[in-house]
């Protein structure tokens, strides 16, 4: 996919039937009497790619978990589509794809089986062709039936990332998606993130990579 | 920017729809069985341990058939309990390490139900084979033939409770680097009622007493474990995952 | 109501309020324990069957009561901590656990000592002693689990869950052990099941039981207060307090 850099950081979503909004106000998280982060404001809208930066142990993963609605020990207010999370948790979950720090693929299963399990968890029907296509996007042709344990770390990460194109979700929350991915893969993933934002989606991610699309990202720094 | 230029599907917000629990439950159960199919050694290890540990007792105590027959119900049950315990540490470990558990939490289905699917798979590959294998070891311990059926039934019924209760311990310790020993400390005291009624059933069968009350108690314990354990397992998994 | 719960849950508020209560608890507990032991060990009549060895019930029975109650109290604190996220409840649970384990051990040990003149052996698989032994393991499990987590909050939650699981299991364990015991040997006479104890015998026992509970409350108060200081060491009010002391 050809990429040009003229895109505005916030993609124009007017005309799309999407208005996505995840709003955090004065978010704070305390662990064992120590504040990981405090008084954090974040507004995720369609077309945004947020980059959560910060040194190790500054609470990046925790912030992503808070935003994904899976970690409730925080203070501050979190609104999805204008409604507090308490009322909109299911709606958020139905429109959000979270890929964690660990890839979330089981070593004993093949990439196809892993993807099929995720589809079943969410009761989403897609057939093997679609799964194979999603794996192909990630450059995993020919590895569909090899147990994931035999694949390299980068390939395992790619299996997890295949869910991005398999499961259409508006909001992507990605914890270190570039880990173990090679240079070509990084570029392809960057393009995929941009395309998602352009299509009206939104991304919140952490990464220690310096990205070519860095100037298009919105940044929030922790720690 | 028209969407046709991208390979991406346009993001459209979807209303949450009702998802079928059965699909997720079945898929999780089959997934675990499928994994085991690829790594048969993991199923065999508890069984080999069972056979090995049982054969230690005649060596350590006495080869006298009469003495062994008296001790057989207890030995077979205690050893089966330890074999189950041995396999528990792996119940959630790999899913925890590779991040699958975290993804299970994000599923629209209750974590309690999904963890039951995993426990069921654990029972199918550990408890049930142990129960089926027990008569073989019973012969070696001079257990009377007419009690073999009860031995199998009590082990099959009881080991389901063992898997459920053990699941709580496994979920509590899965985030700890060396949780294995701690796991036994947490779980063994909770196993005692199952052990009592399990051996009780086999002893009653040997003596020709009524077996049904014991089996009924095992059933009651299983029912109680089915009611309480899923919630405890889910709560413990959340603690372990969120650190 | 909600405001009150949160006020009660504030460690600072609790620390200052309990300061006045603490000496009273210790005072009452000490007096009761002194009166109860002197009465029970010196003035109460000897048992017609067991002679003076029965007097060990003045330690055994209160300790056994406490061993079970503390576990329930710990589980209730755990529930409060999990449901309302009141950290004070967890501090109390953490303070109680070793005391409960110690009481269980005392009950076991006194039972074993009593066994020597009565059964002629240090240990007998009596239903009550067996249940106590299992209870001790449950306590050790809760304490070990709390300590195993590097993050204190996670350890607290895990210990709360285990305490709640344990408290559901205690009656089941007790019932099944009783069943097991009656199945294997006819109930001989045990330390505590005795018909119609005369007034002079059970009144000091009652005083001892109340005294033990008083001791438990006083010790839990003190331990919770020091736990508050330890956990809140970085807060302004504790620092101010320490400066005052120095």
UniProtKB/TrEMBL annotation, chain A:
- Report the domain of life of the source organism: Bacteria
Positions of the ABC transporter domain = 22-222
Tell me the keywords, alphabetical order. Answer: ATP-binding, Cytochrome c-type biogenesis, Membrane, Nucleotide-binding, Translocase, Transport
ATP-binding keyword on record: yes
Matches recorded under PROSITE patterns = ABC_TRANSPORTER_1 (PS00211), ABC_TRANSPORTER_2 (PS50893)
Q: Which GO terms describe its molecular function?
A: ATP binding; ATP hydrolysis activity; transmembrane transporter activity
Q: Which InterPro entries match?
A: AAA+_ATPase (IPR003593), ABC_transporter-like_ATP-bd (IPR003439), ABC_transporter-like_CS (IPR017871), ABC_transptr_haem_export_CcmA (IPR005895), P-loop_NTPase (IPR027417)
One GO process term, biological-process aspect:
cytochrome complex assembly
Protein name listed in UniProt: Heme exporter protein A
This protein's species is Vreelandella subterranea
TrEMBL record, chain B:
Give compartment(s): Cell inner membrane
Q: Which segments cross the bilayer? A: 43-61, 67-88, 123-145, 151-174, 181-206, 212-237
Quote the Pfam families the UniProt record gives. CcmB (PF03379)
**Any one of the GO BP annotations:** cytochrome c biosynthetic process
Which superkingdom does the taxonomy of this entry point to? Bacteria
State the annotated membrane topology for this chain: Multi-pass membrane protein
Alphabetical list of PANTHER family matching this protein: CYTOCHROME C BIOGENESIS B-RELATED (PTHR30070:SF1), HEME EXPORTER PROTEIN B (PTHR30070)
Q: What is this protein called?
A: Heme exporter protein B
Source organism per UniProt: Vreelandella subterranea
UniProtKB/TrEMBL annotation, chain C:
The main location class comes to: membrane
UniProt keyword Cell inner membrane, yes or no: yes
Q: Which GO terms describe its biological process?
A: cytochrome complex assembly
Q: Which GO terms describe its cellular component?
A: plasma membrane
* Keyword Ion transport listed: no
Q: Where is the Cytochrome c assembly protein domain?
A: 23-184
Checking InterPro entries in the record gives:
Cyt_c_assembly, Cyt_c_biogenesis_CcmC, Cyt_c_biogenesis_CcsA/CcmC
Keywords from the named record: Cell inner membrane, Cell membrane, Cytochrome c-type biogenesis, Membrane, Transmembrane, Transmembrane helix, Transport
Compartment annotation: Cell inner membrane; Membrane
Its transmembrane ranges are 21-44, 56-84, 96-117, 129-149, 161-181, 201-221
GO MF entry, a single one: heme transmembrane transporter activity
User: What is the membrane topology listed in the Swiss-Prot or TrEMBL record?
Assistant: Multi-pass membrane protein
Q: What is this protein's function per UniProt?
A: Required for the export of heme to the periplasm for the biogenesis of c-type cytochromes.
Give the family, as the similarity comment puts it. Answer: Belongs to the CcmC/CycZ/HelC family.
What protein name does the entry list? Heme exporter protein C
Task: Say which species the protein is native to.
Answer: Vreelandella subterranea
């Amino acid at each position: 996919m050809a990429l040009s850099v003229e895109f505005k950081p916030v993609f124009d979503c007017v005309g799309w039937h999407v208005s996505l909004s995840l709003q955090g106000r004065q978010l704070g998280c305390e662990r064992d009497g120590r504040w990981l982060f405090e008084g954090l404001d974040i507004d995720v809208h369609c077309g945004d790619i947020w980059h959560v930066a910060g040194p190790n142990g500054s609470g990046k993963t925790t912030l992503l978990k808070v935003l994904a609605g899976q970690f409730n020990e925080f203070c501050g207010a979190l609104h999805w589509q204008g409604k507090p999370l308490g009322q909109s948790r299911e709606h958020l979950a139905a429109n959000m794809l979270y890929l964690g720090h660990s890839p979330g693929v089981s070593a004993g299963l093949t990439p196809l089986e892993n993807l099929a399990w995720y589809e079943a968890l969410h009761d989403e029907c897609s057939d093997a062709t679609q799964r194979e296509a999603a794996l192909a996007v990630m450059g995993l042709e020919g590895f569909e039936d090899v147990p994931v344990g035999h694949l390299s770390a980068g390939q395992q990460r790619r299996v997890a990332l295949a869910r991005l194109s398999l499961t259409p979700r508006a909001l992507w929350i990605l914890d270190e998606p570039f880990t173990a991915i090679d240079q070509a893969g990084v570029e392809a993933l960057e393009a995929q993130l941009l395309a998602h934002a352009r299509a009206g989606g939104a991304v919140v991610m952490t990464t220690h990579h310096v990205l070519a699309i860095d100037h298009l990202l919105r940044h929030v720094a922790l720690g | 920017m028209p969407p046709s230029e991208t390979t991406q599907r346009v993001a459209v917000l979807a209303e949450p729809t009702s998802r079928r629990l059965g699909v997720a439950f079945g898929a999780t159960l089959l997934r675990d069985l499928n994994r085991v199919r690829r790594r048969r050694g993991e199923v065999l290890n508890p069984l080999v341990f069972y056979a090995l540990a049982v054969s230690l007792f005649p060596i350590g105590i006495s080869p006298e058939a009469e003495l062994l027959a008296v001790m057989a119900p207890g030995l077979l049950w205690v050893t089966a309990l330890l074999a189950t315990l041995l396999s528990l540490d792996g119940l959630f470990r790999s899913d925890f390490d590779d991040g699958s558990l975290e993804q299970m939490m994000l599923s629209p289905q209750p974590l309690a139900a999904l963890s039951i699917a995993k426990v069921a798979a654990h029972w199918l590959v550990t408890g049930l084979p142990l129960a089926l294998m027990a008569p073989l070891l019973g012969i070696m311990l001079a257990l009377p033939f007419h009690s073999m059926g009860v031995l199998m039934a009590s082990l099959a019924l009881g080991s389901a409770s063992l898997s459920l209760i053990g699941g709580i311990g496994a979920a509590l310790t899965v985030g700890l680097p060396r949780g294995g020993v701690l796991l036994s400390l947490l779980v063994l005291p909770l196993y005692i009622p199952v052990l009592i009624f399990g051996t009780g059933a086999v002893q009653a069968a040997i003596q020709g007493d009524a077996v049904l009350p014991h089996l009924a108690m095992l059933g009651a314990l299983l029912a109680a474990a089915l009611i309480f354990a899923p919630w405890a397992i889910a709560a413990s998994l959340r603690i372990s995952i969120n650190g | 109501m909600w405001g009150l719960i949160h006020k009660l849950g504030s460690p600072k508020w609790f620390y200052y309020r309990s300061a006045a209560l603490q000496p009273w608890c210790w005072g009452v507990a000490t007096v009761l324990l002194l009166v109860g032991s002197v009465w029970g060990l010196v003035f109460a009549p000897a048992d017609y069957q067991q002679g003076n060895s029965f007097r060990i019930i003045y330690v055994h029975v209160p300790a056994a009561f406490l061993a079970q109650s503390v576990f329930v109290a710990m589980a209730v604190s755990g529930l409060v901590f999990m449901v309302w996220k009141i950290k004070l409840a967890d501090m109390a649970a953490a303070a109680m656990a070793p005391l409960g384990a110690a009481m269980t051990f005392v009950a076991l040990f006194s039972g074993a000592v009593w066994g020597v003149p009565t059964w002629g052996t240090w240990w007998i698989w009596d239903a009550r002693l067996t249940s106590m032994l299992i209870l001790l393991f449950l306590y050790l499990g809760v304490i070990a689990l709390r300590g195993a987590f590097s993050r204190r909050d996670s350890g607290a939650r895990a210990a709360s869950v285990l305490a709640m699981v344990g408290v559901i299991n205690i009656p089941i364990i007790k019932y099944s052990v009783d069943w097991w015991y009656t199945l294997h040997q006819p109930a001989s006479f045990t330390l505590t099941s005795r018909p119609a104890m005369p007034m002079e015998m059970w009144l000091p026992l009652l005083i001892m039981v109340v005294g033990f509970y008083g001791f438990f409350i006083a010790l839990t108060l003190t331990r919770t207060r020091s736990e508050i200081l330890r956990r809140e060491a970085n807060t302004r009010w504790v620092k101010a307090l320490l400066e005052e002391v120095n």
